[in-house]
Amino acid sequence: MKKPVRRSAVRIWLGARLRTLMRYAYWYLSRTRFASVRLSEDLPVVVAEHHTPLYRPLRGVDLWMQHNKVRNLRLAVGRLDGIVVRPGETMSFWRLVGKPSKRKGYVPGMVLFYGTVRPGIGGGLCQLTNLIYWLALHTPLSVVERHRHSYDVFPDAGRTQPFGSGATCAYNYIDLQIYNPTDRPYQLRLRVTDSHLVGQWRTVEPPRYRYEVYEADHRIERQPWGVYTRHNVIRRRVILVETGETVADEFVTSNDAIMMYEPMLPPGPG
After folding, report:
1. In whole angstroms, what is the distance from residue 80 CA to residue 92 CA?
2. How far apart are CA 116 and CA 93, in angstroms?
3. pLDDT confidence band for 270 (50 / 70 / 90)
4. Category of 71 on φ-ψ map: left (φ > 0), alpha (ψ -120 to 50) or beta
């Protein structure tokens, strides 16, 4: 892994504005069929379901930012819950949610910015893209755009999913997009309880396959310039529901991140 290059604030700002304009052009000029229909009633079959806690003890993060995050999540969930991705359609997270703003009711929440934590309007929505991405990995839907976190900011206390199995987001060019290559519709259901963010992918017929997502080749390395980096590979087993036979073992993605905390390494020999 190469040493990270520091970028000036001006370069970051200009790059973000350019990518934002390019994303608008893609949304409105490309031939991609974007999902836009929402149903209030459930499709009958649950394909994947998961929930994540709304509040976690995080070093250096004030609790008010987590409370604000929950408010932001409720607003975004209101734009996504019930969306149906029909065969041949693509779900774009930001195209459906829209730009978070004070006018829409969004408040400052936790934002990860180049390895640091700071408040930002709409902060905390990465928890939602993390959940949707993880759920999609347990379905036949195809993740056509996903961005990984470049920094590993918090230790693994309480982690229930492999490192690097989430998806970061930033309006609108760091998006999460999911394509439906199947012959049946898939519906995303989301809700925010008092304690958890809950999600499901649903469809109209029981699926032929189930999926097991796992981590491989995990390692932590000290780099010559003094920081630790973390690497792994995410894979998934495709299992035929009728027989329990594993019919494929697929590469999903690889992750490399700069660690922003001192890792707990096993003692060396001797």
Report:
1. 10
2. 24
3. very low
4. alpha
Longest dimension (CA), the chain: 63
Q: Which of 36, 47, 92 is nearest to 203 (CA)?
A: 47
Tell me the residue type at 257: A
- The first and second tokens of residue 47, run together, are 């394909």
Contact indicator for 197, 73 with CB cutoff of 8 Å: yes
pTM for the model stands at: 0.90
Higher pLDDT, 5 or 229: 229
pLDDT in tens, 241-262: 999 999 999 999 999 998 877 7
Q: Please name the amino acid found at residue 71.
A: R
Its sign, for the CA torsion 109, 115, 116, 120, is: negative
pLDDT at 47 over 50: yes
Amino acid at 138: H
β strands within the chain, DSSP E? 37-38, 45-53, 83-85, 90-92, 108-113, 116-121, 142-145, 151-152, 177-179, 186-192, 196-203, 209-222, 228-240, 246-259
CB 203 within 8 A of CB 226: no
Token reading at 34: 């974007």
DSSP at 204: S
Q: How far apart are the first and last CA of the chain?
A: 29
- Residue ranges per structural domain of the chain: 32-207
Q: pLDDT by residue (tens digit) across 124-165?
A: 999 999 999 999 999 999 999 999 888 777 776 666 788 888
d(CA 7, CA 111): 18
Report the distance separating Cα 199 and Cα 133, nearest Å: 11
